[in-house]
Amino acid sequence: MKDIILKTNCLCKSFKGQKIVDNLSLEIPRNSVYGLLGPNGAGKSTTLKMITGMLRPSAGEIYFNGKEWTRDNLKDIGVLIETPPLYDNLSARENLKVRTIALGLPQKRIDEVLEIVDLTNTGKKRAGQFSLGMKQRLGIAIALLNNPKLLILDEPTNGLDPIGIQELRGLIRSFPKHGITVILSSHILSEVEQVVDEIGIIAGGKLGYQGIAPRGQELESLFMQVVSANRKVGI
């Protein structure tokens, strides 16, 4: 039997009468990289925002570590959704120090997360002068400050060059061995298939597949089947 860290049960979210997430039931295995896949507008970001408490579900339940989700669970969840929340005029270390003070975390955690994301040698360089890949890694470092059990990354490779993508791929793949489960949202199949253990494919807010990730053409074919099936029912 799988050890599930996070589960959603018939999760729904509607805006102005339009159902964006429709009876979504996910199961995220502990210490894995789970790919949440779908085309733009499929409901991926909305789902992640409900899991992290940014949005309230219209219906359904979320369970974390076997118990119904509460805001107390946020202490065990790290999040990077959309643009990293950085102070451009501060260095990487200063950006992290602001957060450790705000969260009441020990200062030693700064060096630990800088090493994890390979930003220990940036010195006094301001975050505004960082490459996009460095900014993404610093955003992940901020998400790791509270030593989370679950890390949620929404489209983390958007805009990165091939080197930045490769570096981020290796970083993400390293997390499960440190006891961190990752939910990785993306619409770029070729990137996701190289790092994930399992996937969920959603389109039109519906879950069309969940399980082991096939590779190459099989993944692309499965993805298109799920998207096409939901389009046929008018979604």
Task: Briefly characterize the structure.
With 235 residues, the chain is of the alpha/beta class. Helix content is 32%, strand content 27%.
Task: Characterise this structure.
The chain has 235 residues and is α/β, with parallel strands linked by helices. It has one domain (4-87, 149-230): Rossmann fold, CATH 3.40.50. It is built from 7 helices and 11 strands. The strands form 2 sheets. Strands 7-8-9-4-10-11 form a 6-stranded mixed sheet, sandwiched between helices. Helix 5 (162-174) links the parallel strand 8 and strand 9 (181-186). Helix 2 packs across helix 3 (108-116). It starts with a strand and ends with a helix. The relative contact order is 0.18.
Helicity level, as a percent range?
Answer: 25-40%
Classify the beta-strand content into a percent band. Answer: 25-35%
**Rounded radius of gyration (Å):** 18 Å
CATH class: Alpha Beta
Query: Could you tell me how far the N terminus lies from the C terminus, measured between alpha carbons in angstroms?
Result: 34 Å
Low-confidence stretches: none
List the helices and strands and how they pair.
Layout: E1 4-15, E2 18-24, E3 27-29, E4 33-37, H1 44-51, E5 59-64, E6 67-68, E7 77-81, H2 92-103, H3 108-116, H4 132-144, E8 150-154, H5 162-174, E9 181-186, H6 189-192, E10 198-203, E11 206-212, H7 216-232
Parallel strand pairs: 4-9, 4-10, 7-8, 8-9
Antiparallel strand pairs: 1-2, 1-3, 1-5, 5-6, 10-11
Helix pairs in contact: 2-3, 3-4, 4-5
